Amino acid sequence: MSRVTPRPGVPSVDLPEGVSADDEGAAKPASKGRGSGFGSAGTRSASQASAAKSAAQDLVASFSPDAAVCFTDGACKGNPGPAGAGAVLKLPGGEHHERYRALGKATNNVGELTGVLLALELLDEAGFPATAQAEILSDSQYANGVLTKGWKANVNQELIATIKARLKLRKARMHWIAGHVGVPENERADALANLGVAESSRR
User: Fold this and answer.
1) How does strand 2-4 pair with strand 13-15?
2) What amino acid positions are annotated as catalytic residues?
């Protein structure tokens, strides 16, 4: 067992062997091997960035032409600090919708989760059928883990429960893609999230 105290004010937790925790206490399986192989945003080599972009493009190309595709992102200045979330929705006919939200003082993980929530809101408002396939792409391992992989979170539980409940109302799949590798819609979601950061900074 390993003992983790993720943040001040959050109780320590005992994690079984083979499980680690992120900075907000989400318990997750320990990495086996080398992860995605794409490195981290800001430190990727040119070859890693190219491979990450190709993987993201291949993933999107694999989706049905009848699917809605959502790109989501979150951002904050400091962690926690002024935060925002953004989402871009591409409908099968080519129509685009987008949104950002200022979150005040929050963590990056709250921003990432809220980006997924914004995507679900856009799908509802666009009238996209709940029975039609929606593909939601996030560059957050945390968001994907706590929403679809059974990672246990000590914080953000209400937000996570809200998003999970809304995901269950739709034929939706979550996917992870590497961020900041030149995928236009992912870059736009990041820009929208940073509009939220800017607005939060003015509050």
Assistant:
1) antiparallel
2) 73-74, 112, 139, 180, 190
